[in-house]
């Protein structure tokens, strides 16, 4: 007799969604987590999901199935199978509604947040596809409130839009009375709200995570999945179930796997420490075909003192999009639109100089001046009330002096800044078109948004000048076992491995290399977690019916 109908590995967005779905539809779910606390990278995050045609999108946003499909295909560079994109577009809205009607997992539309490539075919400059999660009172989790880890990257009691950095530069300070109210009620926001709500939905169905359980091996009998071997503090433990969902996150914390598979450097990551590719290795040993292995959710990152950010690193999202900054490479030249979406930076970071045979744009630096610093304050992605100290930032009274400190050619840096300033004063960027896209304008200074590049373009001309090194990082990887439209893992011949499912960053992302808009990673993670949960529940029901039939016949 199996211990469960399904074992779910991992308590991030993908795993929790699979667990709650399967449990709601009658399956006996065993939910296991390698870490001592739960929530994965998901609770570190902004908690947004990108789902075209969702029930919350105001009708005037004017989305359609054809537009959404055209958008994904246009961005995919051939990395998406048609049926996977269609499944995402069709099942995403179903998942949002299903969770909305049955669980505390609620969302609302983020007004006007443009897609990440809004001018691309099928893109929406007017937004409507990105959803965020309302605050969630952690008291509802009982003892589990203290077993969800806190995000080192975002404030605990803020929502995404307007109160931190994601999609909103120059954040409005939160009313102190409201902040105090939230703290007293322990109402957490962003990824903590999403993770908390998903966890509550599981607990409501008597699905309690078993922590300190690291899945290391699939038990396979006669070609079918039959359970998982775990490493626990008490030793190895075998747990039996005819279905397993691998939702163990990416392999961003394993140097060898990154070296083996990723298309370029990924020296920094904000993925949780436990995401070391265990699920990938389990699937490989079971004969799974792999997909999307070169890709990650790319992110420019910086290093900061640990008394500002405990992990010593931070995402570089909004500062580079504000007017008065540029980024330069080792030749002292700009190399891309600094206001582009973070994932797109992967392409710039991984460009090779064909003559010198090195990465053309690594190392690179963010450059700004005193006026910029006085106006915006370098908060290192933390936003809100945090105006970080700046003694860790390289500075000089002249651009030439700054170049000397960085070891880059002074004349080139001076020339680059002069050219940028000349054009910026005229609100043009003939080199990289910065500020043209609706996405640059959204992420730029909201007080300067007027439909021109002004929100993102402005000169840097007042000493002292500052520089911060920027690294090629990622939120997480997104390659893994190849799955079909039912989230079932496929083997090397394209056949289903019976009982094996994968979702989230542990799987080959069904949306290939695309990052459609804010929430583009948790969207597919949750939708395919949901699909896995439903498929498993059906499989369980069919088995029960077959067993009952056999008993009846006997
Ligand atoms: C600061 C920040 C902001 C972000 N904002 C957003 C956003 O707003 N929207 C968005 O879409 N994405 C966002 N992301 C990215 C997003 O958080 C991740 O892509 C997403 O959480 C991945 O979900 P997952 O369920 O696949 O993996 P995770 O959430 O990482 O969960 C994987 C879990 O599996 C566990 N695990 C690993 N190995 C094993 C094993 N062997 N056995 C059992 N358990 C195991 C891990 O401990 C972990 O708990 C952000 C990320 C960060 C860091």
Write the layout of secondary structure elements.
Layout: E1 6-9, H1 13-24, E2 29-32, E3 49-50, H2 65-76, H3 82-102, E4 108-109, E5 130-132, E6 136-137, H4 176-185, E7 187-188, H5 190-204, E8 214-221, E9 224-232, E10 235-240, E11 243-246, H6 255-261, E12 268-269, H7 278-285, E13 290-291, E14 296-303, E15 313-315, E16 325-329, H8 345-349, E17 352-353, E18 358-359, E19 364-369, H9 370-376, E20 394-396, H10 399-406, H11 410-425, H12 438-443, E21 465-477, E22 480-481, E23 488-490, E24 496-502, H13 522-553
Parallel strand pairs: 1-2, 1-11, 11-24, 12-21
Antiparallel strand pairs: 3-5, 4-5, 6-7, 8-9, 9-10, 13-22, 14-15, 14-21, 16-19, 17-18, 19-21, 20-21, 23-24
Bound molecules: flavin-adenine dinucleotide (FAD).
Bound molecules: flavin-adenine dinucleotide
Q: What is the residue-averaged pLDDT?
A: 94
Residues in β-strands, percent: 15-25%
- How many separate helices? 13
Number of strands: 24
What is the approximate shape? globular
Low-pLDDT runs of 5+ residues are: 164-170, 382-386
Biggest sheet: strands, sense, closure?
7 strands, mixed
Terminal CA distance reads 19 Å
Radius of gyration, CA atoms, in whole angstroms: 24 Å
Percent helix, as a range, is: 25-40%
CATH topology of the largest domain: FAD/NAD(P)-binding domain
The structure class reads: alpha+beta
Question: Would you identify the CATH architecture of the largest domain?
Answer: 3-Layer(bba) Sandwich
Number of self-contained structural domains:
2
CATH superfamily of the largest domain: FAD/NAD(P)-binding domain
CATH class of the largest domain: Alpha Beta
